[in-house]
């Protein structure tokens, strides 16, 4: 009789423990979801986006408006402290993932330290000080998200956040402004940001969406039509570099998906169908004029072919900016001190178009932090890229593939656009991946012990880990 009672008591205790674990998991997941939504709203107001985007045709006025928006925008001044508060709350309340170590961590620390040290020699300490505050919040945010979110959770967040911005942009161009003209070669899809930045937003949405499709194959019937729509919008931005990089990365991810999730016969049928569609189209296009067809493909329908030889006016800009680099080659002008409002207006006037940055991240880093800072930045980004692909080659996991493709995109895009660590959520996901690459390989696995094969949002780890330190009694309802 006593054995029977003991068994019943033990069963009741197990049921109670399972119920408490379920409640703790629910609370943890709810905190992650609510924080992601709040942060997405904060980043919307911190960029800032424009609803709708209207660029003054006068480059001097456009440059002045751009500088003013980033210099004294009230929404950014409110949003960034809120981001800091939410990130601090997440670091306090949520389980920590991974353990840091390796050479890349010291390179990243060196880059951050050099950026803050540049305040000492900045040409304009007031601007550098304000922008270093934002830089510090961004760096802390990237650290926190890397410590508390998995790559799959980041993929889900990235897909929903960037997809929402894409749909708002489509609403603006199609309904609010009535300017959506996809077959007009002079039309570029913008919505709430410039076409090139819109392309970045759409590219991140596509990569995150494909990651979710690999994790949850049953979602493909719903996600593929939406991703096809996103890719069409990406084409309509007519941002050539973003579109070509996206095409290459999509091919890599889709090939991986078909190898893992399709039978050989199905893959053969898919390849045959692709060839049957592509070959006649290629013959039709090349049959009229091969050189003209190649130009049309490269220009994506744009008519500004006169700027192609100068890389869309980037080459003259880089030539002018290199003269400024020669003034302070080793230390630079101080973190983002070069792009103060008067210089933005001057460079824009010299070039004849609005120039808010160098359209090259590595050149911008050299202007801000000199050759030393640029080398630290390049070492951090390229090092993270190499580590990401090495990890993916060893694991072949969709969660490890996402940082690899994101880092590939940003490193290549940085050659023609400025994508520093700033409050722009699509590029922020890449810098979060940099922090992930500073962690020891495999150190996050113990945080996913309770994650099912198709789960995306993780709950309380099955066991306390060295990184977590405790069982989070506040989440489990035990406040003793």
TrEMBL record:
In terms of Pfam families, this protein maps to: Wzy_C
In which compartments does the protein localize? Membrane
Recorded GO MF terms: ligase activity
Can you tell me where the transmembrane regions are? 30-51, 74-92, 104-121, 133-149, 156-175, 195-212, 219-236, 242-258, 270-290, 367-389
Gene Ontology cellular-component terms for this entry are: membrane
Positions of the O-antigen ligase-related domain: 227-377
Entries under PANTHER family matching the protein? O-ANTIGEN LIGASE, TEICHURONIC ACID BIOSYNTHESIS PROTEIN TUAE
Q: How does it sit in the membrane?
A: Multi-pass membrane protein
Query: What superkingdom does the record give?
Result: Bacteria
Instruction: List the keywords (alphabetical).
Output: Ligase, Membrane, Transmembrane, Transmembrane helix
- Under what name is this protein listed? O-antigen ligase
Give the organism the record lists: Bryocella elongata
